[in-house]
């Protein structure tokens, strides 16, 4: 007997199938576009352009991926080689993730473990960034970055996106749960603030750091509006921007095979990160935003 | 909340705060102040001279029928994305929370779209619904339905709504599932013993207990639809055809970057800031109240 079942036994068989059917439908709706894209990346441009894309893999897979990866020109479109764009995206995602974690963990430590003049002023100054997403101050931020001479640089691409209150708040909240007795004991043992940070706080924060890393990596990798503005040279293009530039107006006469191969490559790193680090990612998401 | 035991050090806390404060001042406070300043000034085309014009930029923006049209598009777009992605995520989460086999496999299969960039989601949809080469786009045309989202306003708006919602479902799913799993089983079992059916249990117990999660997601989804969907729209329709899929943020970009109208674009930015601040304030008041209850 399965007493946990929600549905009564009579007619239960059919009712048991309902969740499976609905979930499978959900999975199908998410998976279908990806499937078609992967298939598209294995055919030649002409087959796709005629509009008769089969639903089974073609034989051009290696060709397509190789030329998207290393060449800057297909039959019809010019583009930055994907390896350069992927590298830019990777640098951007890593610098944003590690930079945000680094500066917010130390500022949260300062706010949580010290009492000093202007403490709350600084806290609110950081906090207010929650209300200013880059999109709403896009033009003036662009001007600031241009004035600093950071257009087309990794610094311009990443630093303006680094400060954000979410990570600081999350760390602060976590630090407040560290028992006072632990701090007391460390102080009696003669440990200073830096020693306590390195030997106790940092190791205790490992899970939070891992969780934030996943979320911030994806945030950085998927940026669109900011890199669109701040990079002009093909050498600095990120892969998400690169794809939409390759598409242009979405005409049939585009190298869709290369675009599809690029799309698959562009989504592999973030999807891999989410799937492999699911546990941390979900924890970080639910903890940090609620 | 304050801790009782703290470290004494004069300079160290300032040093620890310095990087974040520096970045915040340079890239947040300064640009925001500049947006405020520009929104009450009029600049010539070369940005050489500017003149204080008070609220004229705001007046110009708010009395522009084009802008009001954009406001309408944004409301339709955001409301549709929010309702569609919340409702389907809730449905899926309820199903995944029921005691079925392979529940964790379903979870993995449903949460990965979170990792996709909005612009990449747009490309996937374009490839399927393109009227010339897309499998479903061609199928619609073959069935006799004239489908071309590049020409038809309503179809374009539908496309961006679907692509934007599709990407957001997984995010909402994660939160709904976490919310559902926090509901004590005993409450539901008690209701079950009292003879309440699954549907009744959902509406009288589960749904009310989920309301904090739902409210939080409501705010997050509105903010998502407002700002983060720029990539979806830019990649899929470029705001077109005409201005059919132009949302407020798309217009800030269009007026500021493409048309170089700094005053108008800044006034629009300030309007958007007010909206975000209002949304954040509402959210925090609500979250605070929730904390008091628990």
From TrEMBL, chain A:
GO CC annotation: plasma membrane
Keyword terms: Cell inner membrane, Cell membrane, Membrane, Transmembrane, Transmembrane helix, Transport
Sequence ranges assigned to domain ABC transmembrane type-1 in this UniProt record: 86-277
Segments traversing the membrane: 21-43, 90-114, 121-142, 154-175, 196-219, 256-277
Coiled coil location: none
Database matches in Gene3D superfamilies: MetI-like
Classification via SUPFAM superfamilies: MetI-like
Location of the protein in the cell: Cell inner membrane; Cell membrane
A Pfam family assignment: BPD_transp_1
A GO biological-process term: transmembrane transport
Membrane topology designation: Multi-pass membrane protein
Main location: membrane
UniProt subunit comment: The complex is composed of two ATP-binding proteins (UgpC), two transmembrane proteins (UgpA and UgpE) and a solute-binding protein (UgpB).
NCBIfam families per the UniProt record, alphabetical: PRK10973.1 (NF008210)
Function: Part of the ABC transporter complex UgpBAEC involved in sn-glycerol-3-phosphate (G3P) import. Probably responsible for the translocation of the substrate across the membrane.
Family the UniProt entry places it in: Belongs to the binding-protein-dependent transport system permease family.
The protein's name: sn-glycerol-3-phosphate transport system permease protein UgpE
Organism: Azospirillum brasilense
Originating gene: ugpE
TrEMBL record, chain B:
InterPro entries listed in its UniProt record: MetI-like, MetI-like_sf, UgpAE/MalFG_permease
Topology class, membrane: Multi-pass membrane protein
Location of this chain's protein in the cell: Cell inner membrane; Cell membrane
Entry-linked PROSITE patterns: ABC_TM1
The ABC transmembrane type-1 domain, residue ranges: 71-283
One GO BP annotation of this record: transmembrane transport
Subunit structure: The complex is composed of two ATP-binding proteins (UgpC), two transmembrane proteins (UgpA and UgpE) and a solute-binding protein (UgpB).
Family: Belongs to the binding-protein-dependent transport system permease family.
UniProt-recorded name of the protein: sn-glycerol-3-phosphate transport system permease protein UgpA
Species name: Azospirillum argentinense
Lineage: Bacteria, Pseudomonadati, Pseudomonadota, Alphaproteobacteria, Rhodospirillales
